[in-house]
Amino acid sequence: MRLLFEIGMEENPARFLVKALDDLKKNLENKLKNERIKYEDIKTFGTPRRMVILVEGLAEKQEDLNELNMGPARKVAYDANGELSRAGLGFAKSQGVEGTDLEIVDTPKGEYIAVRKFSEGVATKTLLPEILKSLVLELEFPKSMKWADRKFKFARPIQWFLAMADNDVVEFEIEGIKSGLSSKGHRFFGKPFTVESIDDYFTKIRENNVIIDIKERKQMIRDLIDKNCTKENEQVLIHENLLNEVTNLVEYPFPIVGTFNSDFLEVPQEVLIISMEVHQRYFPILDKNGKLLPKFVVVRNGIEYSDKVKAGNEKVLSARLADARFFYQEDLKNPLEANVPKLATVVFQKDLGTIADKMARVTKLADFLTDKLGYTAEKEDIFRTIKLCKADLVSNMINEKEFTELQGLMGADYALKSGEKETVSKGIQEHYFPRFKGDKLPETKEGIVAGICDRMDTLAGCLGVGVTVTGSKDPFALRRAALGIVNVIINSKLNVSLKELVEKSIEILDEAGVLQKDKALLEKEVLEFLKQRVINVFTDMGYRRDVILAVVAKAWDNVIETKAMIEVLEKEVQEDSFKNLVGIIKRVGNIVKDHTEREVNKELFKEAAETSLYDYVEELDRTTAALLAAKDYKGYLDAVLNGEEIVNNYFNSVMINDKDAAVKNNRLSQMKRLDDIYERMADLDLIEG
């Protein structure tokens, strides 16, 4: 049997559609499972005006229910007189049966009471009305609405239900909206129709100019743009997110090329592109070098070209671009530095003060970091970058809330046009990098230092005044800030201590009198927060999780050194010699897990293997300390590996748990010294296998 269910409605917001279809499918899967109705496949389709679900291979009836529900043991269920105890009566009541319906079942654990239930499966068509009705009533959206005199909520007003099981209607009703065999085609290029079968529906919906398959509609847009919307040496800028949105704004796509006045190109093309993509859902057209042309693509919800649609969209875009040009020209009337005093009126966070307060702290932290990094020659430009990097937030372009995505980029443009150095201009833009996962990273020292210090102040400051981060709540994007710090340090190969940076940031916040937490506790919290991001970054880079955790357990403060250790260890763990050593390391670790003493008395040695191990550990201690100090991590691991035979010989010759407590503890201390050396670079116990 096949099932087709269509929910017809007024235009649904594009951002709701995919999630709603996923939920619809999952909910139906769960309901069919709960009702013991088997099926072969469930597919979903959708447009702004409809959500469609198709079930193939639906069973004609439920599976029969034949189950045995076990209760308490017989000796618990009955008292000494053979009467049901409270436990037995409680079980019978929970199963909805009388005591006489209970039976005794012999199991490997003894005799237990049980209830056997059998129910013959009901015809699927009998159950479908309630299933489909509940699908509608239980579907949730980010925003829902009521309409007319109805009480239930939905994303947009529902206009019809089409529900078919094979060729028969599945009849149900929700507040006066009845299911049937009728649907509607495209709003402007289709008409209402009635279907006789499920296949008939798919034929007629297409005849009425509706492409219900989202993937097909998306590919149509790409194909039609490639075929009809570009000339030689032109390219249409298609971002995947915008394409997904446009796909779910139309039922039948028809791309049309529009134009705008080339005078608008005096405005930075990023501004114009934002106007087209974000505000109007248009696709910009670029030349082969990536320079914006005065052309765009609008995807019409229709089946044919229209001069009116073209002209209407051109008029709307011109108004948008005129606003952008006005804001831009107004901003250029004054140098960027003139905006800086206004930052004292913009609150960053209620307990941390204004943006001006924040940037004063960032400047102090940058003074510390530039000295640590040896960027003395660039310090003046770094300070200038920090002074100006937030100035565009109060510009007309950004402050009007229409172009917030361009913060940093506009500041860089205004800085150049105000006569600032190119390095300062780049630093202003780059201090926001990376803005998202996979984004580009800063290249200038100005952008690197400004970005790290800005993020560190945000992270330590927000945690320091009680801002909390949960799985779904991160109002100041602290996770992104921490990830940005780690990624910038790794990409720029900065030899810097995160602990020192956190300590200095907290010290500056404390001097400003804004902290609401104990400094030591805050430092621990910030460092743990950063540590988790360090693990995440290295995981995203593709390193083995156990290797990352092993190294980070011992050394993560300097992430450049951490990365070098991870790279060396990742190669070594593949070698058979290392795999053999892991067993020894784990054995040593298990032996000394509760032992803390490290002092070894040679006079208590009884076996030659003890002396051999002692001499080996003494030499290994000196050698590995020197190798790690020289950052020779490969040499350290090689040195550790070279002692496998000596350690194995010790285990074969010496019984650590000697009857003499002094001898036993002395041997444990020798193992503890060895364990310390094994864990100098990484907690090798964490290596799997």
Tell me about this structure.
By secondary structure, this protein is α+β, with helices and mostly antiparallel strands. It has 5 domains: 3-61 and 123-207; 65-119, no CATH class; 214-331, no CATH class; 336-542, Hypothetical protein af1432, CATH 1.10.3210; 573-686, Isoleucyl-tRNA Synthetase, Domain 1 (Orthogonal Bundle), CATH 1.10.730. Strands 1, 2, 3, 7, 8, 9 and 10 form a 7-stranded mixed beta sheet that branches. The longest helix has 25 residues, at 307-331. The two termini are 51 Å apart.
**DSSP, total strands:** 18
The CATH architecture assignment of the largest domain turns out to be Orthogonal Bundle
**Residue fraction in strands:** 5-15%
Rg calc: 35 Å
Annotation field: number of helices: 25
Sketch the major β-sheet. 7 strands, mixed
Number of domains: 5
Please render the helix and strand layout as text.
Blueprint: E1 3-9, H1 14-34, E2 41-47, E3 50-56, E4 65-73, H2 74-77, H3 86-94, E5 103-107, E6 110-119, H4 124-138, E7 158-165, E8 168-169, E9 173-174, E10 177-180, E11 182-184, E12 192-194, H5 198-207, H6 214-228, E13 234-236, H7 240-247, E14 253-259, H8 269-280, E15 283-287, E16 292-301, H9 307-331, E17 347-349, E18 353-354, H10 355-373, H11 379-388, H12 396-399, H13 409-417, H14 422-430, H15 445-464, H16 478-492, H17 498-511, H18 519-540, H19 545-552, H20 559-572, H21 576-591, H22 608-629, H23 633-641, H24 644-653, H25 661-678
Helix pairs in contact: 1-4, 6-7, 8-9, 10-11, 10-15, 10-17, 11-14, 11-15, 13-14, 14-15, 15-16, 15-17, 15-18, 16-18, 17-18, 18-19, 19-20, 21-25, 22-23, 22-24, 22-25
